Every structure is written in C-alpha cells, then in structure tokens.
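Revision sheet: structure tokens.
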Amino acid sequence: MRHRLRYLRINFNPRESWFHFRRNIAQMRGTNVWVFILYGLLFDTAANLWRPFALPFLSRLGGEEIHITLLNSLPGAVAAVVLLPGALLFRKFANQKKATAAFILLSRALILVLALIPALPPHVRPMLFVVMLGLMNCPDALSQTSLQSFLGSVFNGNMRGQAIAMRTKFGQAIIPVVSIITGLVITFVPRTEEQRMMLYQGFFIIAFLVGVWEVRMFMRLKVEERPPAETADSPRKREIFLAIMRDKRFRLFFFPAIFFVFTWQAGWTLFAFHQVRVLNATELWFAIFALASGVSAFISGSFWQKWLRKYGNNAIFVISGMLLAANTIMTPFVPNVQMMAVISLFTGFSAIGINTALLNGVLEATPDENRMIYLAFYNTIVNVSLFIAPFFAHLLFTIWGNAMALFIISGLRIASTGVIWLVHRRIKLKQPTE
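Predicted:
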C-alpha cells in the first residue's frame, strides 16, 4: 500500500478532461487516499448538518453576546485541559485506531443531547447549549489529534500534502451542498417556531447517524499498528516536553503559527456579532455564506495545492494571511447580507490556504518519534488561544465597538503574517551556510 501511494500521481486541474478525472479516481480506489477522502466527506457532512446554524440556533434559544463569546471560547478551554493528558493516555493503547474511533463515536453521540435542549425550560437552554458544545470538544480534540498523528505515518511528505489538499477540496464541495439544503429546509418548511425547533432536532439526529457511518469509514483506514509506547525505557513525560521546546525546527513553525492563529480566532467572534446583531442573518443566509465560501474553497483547491508544492507552507501562510486581514478590514463596511455573501467568497479562498498550510506545516515540523505528544502540545496551545481570543475580541468590542475591534484584529493579522514572512526569510538566508 505504501509503495502504491508513493508513486501515485494525482493532479486535479479544472481544465483536465472528464476522462482523466475518472482515471485518477480509478487509481485512488482502495488506497488510503481514497478512504481518507471518503472519511472527510462524512466528517464534513455530519458537521455541516448543524454547525453552520449553531449561531442562529443559539439566538433562537435566547442567546446574547456573552453566549456567543462562550460558544467560541469554551471548546478551546476544554481541549486545552484534556489534550496533553489524553495524548499520554493514547500512548498506552495497544490499538490506537480503535481508541480514536471510540472517541469519534462519543463525540457524535453527544449530538443527540443537543436534540433534547429545545424541550428544556427556556432559561437554561442558551447556556446548556454552549456548555454541551464545549464538552463535545473533549472527544473531538483527542480524536482529531490522534488522526493527525496517523497522517504523519500513513502518508509520506509529498503524498501527505496532496492527500490533505484533496480531502479539503472534496470536503469544500460537499459542505455548501449540505449547508444550503439544511438552510432551505429550516427556513421554508416550518410554519411555526415549534416546527422549526423540531427540524433542528431532526438534523441533530441525522448528524449522529452520519457520524456512525463516519466511524465505520475511519476504521477502513490502513494504519500500521505499533505496540504501546509507554515502556520502562520510554523517556519521561517531562523529558518529552523539554525536547519539544528544544526542537528548533518545531519552534520556528510553532511560535509564528500560534501568533497568527490567535489573531485568526479573535476575528470569529466579531464576525458573528456583525452577522447576527448587525445584519440579522437568518439560517438561509448562513447557508448562503457557507455555499459561497465552500464553492470558492473548492475552486481554489487546485491553486493552493500547486502553490504548496512549489513555494511551501510559509509562503502560503503569507498570501492567505494577508487575504484574511483584508477581509477583516472590509467587514465593518458590509451593509447587508448580500454583500456578506460576496465577502464569503474571499473568506473561503483564503481559509482553505490557511487550513492546508497549518495541517501540513505541523506534520512537517514534528518528528516521527513522539509525534502524538508534539501534536497534543501544539493543539493544546491552539485551544488555549481559542479560549482567550474570543474574550479578547469581546473586550475590544465592549471598549471600541465592533468596527474598531475588527480594524485592530486586522492590524494584528497583518503583523502576525509579517512575523511568518520574516521567519521564512531568515530560514532561507541561513540555508546556504548550514
């Protein structure tokens, strides 16, 4: 399998013929790339049956600005607490793939709890919904960190970048389809608010069922199982963490990436304030935003894949980071939901570049040995940032209002992108002499 994947050439160019497209699909069938793409499609389907509508659902439950802030913040707090202990626990499992599948299934099972919330007293609904989303991130964060570790061993360097880009590209094709269908149904089918809540409950249940299918597909991923790493001769936990901090290659990726991620996450809460409170976006418009972003991301997938191979992750960071900063500057001037849909086109284009570069970048920066611990450490700090960033954004919103807060975040995004560029330039200048 590894031999076959290593020499498989996959190049999805929008101009290539249908014949070549079918030939490439036939080449992938039965490979880990194929299974990874199908797993990604099911993952994205389960998530986008309800996640794009979490904000309007929270608003219908009676949520206010503090609930929106917590909606963005609590998942990061939960993940930050559980990731490192969970990664150390994973080292003791004889079959890490089965353990990962169990955590994925637990996360999808918690979606059923969300379906019960509309039946509860109104005064507890908003906070309970926010808390449940935070708790769901416990099994989610552990399973996704373990999956990232698998990708580092399943695919080699060149194929890994292509597999990630292709999984993201196909996912971006299914996301808008699922989101727009769900948004249309929630908007036009119900005649009363009670019927709308029943539809939400139905989509939560469907998402759980798709999640079960997702777990079955994940189990088809061929991973070379290894015995538990926690042995008598294994390095102590403290030694592993000290080694992470001494790893120059990892540090050069880690610190600029975290600076950028913080500025990226801080903008999410402000975007939500603008869409819900200023533009009064409904479920249908949230579906249209997802459609515009998804179509743009799907079309740009080949572009980012080509640039990733040609220029590397840091160059992709710089380009997509500047585009995200430009989006942030434009958002306060968006007067209506129609223009917001246009902005979503640019958001989708730049976000897929960031997502691809982040995932491929962290896998390149982590060694094969103790990769799970490296990834848990990285994701823990990312989630600490996710916990702090919404409150930082809320503080800016409280002091200066949403427009000025967005301008400040945009300036920080530009600064973080500049740091990434400087680090990349320093590495290139040092390469001839090292």
